[in-house]
């Protein structure tokens, strides 16, 4: 059976250090987490790609669902990723690309993904992206990267993911799919450091013009008051798309700066990024208490340290990257 990365076994896979349980945000979002593990399996440093975290903005009702730009993957690692057209059954397309040594990133229904047992597995339908390393339709088995790990799905869950429950007359859902062409040679450390530093300056120039944490803080209490009127499960969706995206983004930013800087060059900037991550985690707990007690006014100032830290981060990096 063909595999993109031969020999990987979900039973023995060790996640990358960016997914260590002791981190404040051991999981970020499905797309970035997936690429961290794919690059780890490919034998290159995923920390190199994280300069794009400087561009996260507040979008009015959520923070940017941050994703590594595909052009950064090519610049840093020589990985060419683009959309794969799905016009036949999904499995046939995926198998063709695996035979060519290419990784397919497919949007799937988390309802059938057993690694989401703590969230959506067999409870609610939601789209998420997985990277398929090995696929055996006859045995109904798939090994895949998802979130902070590498997993196996089989049997009825496999059938659900690939819509085997549909009748002949039912139109299938054709998922959005990307595929990545991996280079024959891995880039060296000097290339990664040089290009990552250059890209960091590019992304700094693309940062939001106004402090996004300040923009969020201005509407945060009113948003939470509305969230409190919804079923409690909605709290988790709101927190994921606001505080978790903010905190996880900047914890990864700190990891990037620590990896890139030599001799503590970016230590103060990294500390500012970590402050944003830390405050986001603390405020998420305060958010749960505010909803339970229905007291929202204290949330107005809860993000103040993160607001200051964002300003400090951007002001500190500017002179270093000129």
Describe this structure in words.
- The chain folds into two domains: 17-43 and 80-181, no CATH class; 189-320, no CATH class.
- The termini are far apart.
- The longest helix has 28 residues, at 233-260.
- With 322 residues, the chain is α+β, with helices and mostly antiparallel strands.
- It is built from ten helices and six strands; from the N terminus they run ααβαββββαβαααααα.
- Strand 4 (141-146) and strand 5 form a beta hairpin.
- Strands 1-6-2-3-4-5 form a six-stranded antiparallel beta sheet, sandwiched between helices.
- Helices cover 46% and strands 12% of the residues.
What are the segments in which pLDDT stays under 50 over at least 5 consecutive residues? none
How confident is the prediction overall: mean pLDDT?
A: 93
Biggest β-sheet: count, sense, barrel?
A: 6 strands, antiparallel
Radius of gyration: 21 Å
What count of domains describes the coordinates? 2
Assembly of the depicted chains: single chain
The CA-CA distance between the termini, in Å, is 50 Å
Question: Which descriptors would you attach to this protein?
Answer:
322 residues; alpha+beta; 2 domains; six-stranded antiparallel sheet; 10 helices; 6 strands; 46% helix; 12% strand
Compact description:
By secondary structure, the chain is α+β, with helices and mostly antiparallel strands. The chain has 10 helices and 6 strands.
Topology of this protein?
Elements: H1 30-42, H2 70-77, E1 80-83, H3 90-99, E2 102-109, E3 127-136, E4 141-146, E5 149-154, H4 155-161, E6 177-181, H5 189-205, H6 212-227, H7 233-260, H8 267-293, H9 299-302, H10 304-320
Antiparallel strand pairs: 1-6, 2-3, 2-6, 3-4, 4-5
Helix pairs in contact: 2-5, 6-10, 7-8, 8-10
């Amino acid at each position: 059976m063909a595999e993109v990365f031969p020999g990987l076994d979900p039973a023995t896979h060790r996640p990358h250090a960016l997914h260590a349980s002791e981190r404040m945000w051991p999981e970020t979002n499905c797309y970035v987490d997936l690429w961290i593990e794919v690059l780890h399996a490919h034998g290159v440093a995923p920390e190199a790609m994280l300069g794009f975290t400087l561009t996260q903005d507040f979008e009015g009702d959520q923070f940017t669902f941050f994703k590594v730009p595909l052009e950064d993957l090519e610049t840093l690692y020589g990985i060419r990723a683009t959309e794969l057209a799905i016009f036949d059954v999904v499995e046939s397309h995926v198998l063709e690309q695996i035979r060519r040594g290419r990784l397919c990133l497919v949007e799937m229904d988390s309802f059938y993904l057993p690694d989401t047992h703590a969230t959506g597995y067999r409870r609610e339908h939601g789209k998420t992206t997985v990277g398929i390393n090995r696929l055996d339709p006859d045995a109904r088995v798939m090994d895949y990267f998802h979130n902070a790990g590498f997993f196996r799905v089989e049997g009825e869950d496999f059938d659900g993911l690939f819509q085997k429950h549909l009748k002949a007359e039912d139109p299938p859902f054709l998922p959005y799919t990307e595929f990545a062409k991996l280079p024959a040679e891995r880039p060296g450390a000097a290339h990664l450091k040089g290009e990552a530093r250059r890209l960091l300056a590019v992304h700094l120039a693309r940062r939001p013009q106004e402090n996004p944490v300040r923009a969020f803080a201005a509407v945060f209490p009113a948003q939470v008051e509305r969230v409190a009127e919804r079923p409690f499960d909605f709290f988790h969706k709101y927190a994921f798309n606001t505080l978790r995206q903010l905190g996880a983004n900047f914890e990864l930013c700190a990891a990037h700066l620590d990896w890139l800087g030599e001799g503590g060059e970016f230590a103060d900037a990294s500390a500012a990024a970590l402050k944003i991550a830390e405050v986001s985690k603390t405020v998420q707990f305060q958010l749960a208490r505010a909803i339970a007690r229905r007291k929202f006014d204290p949330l107005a100032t809860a993000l103040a340290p993160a607001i200051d830290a964002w300003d400090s981060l951007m002001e500190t990096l500017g002179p270093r990257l000129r």
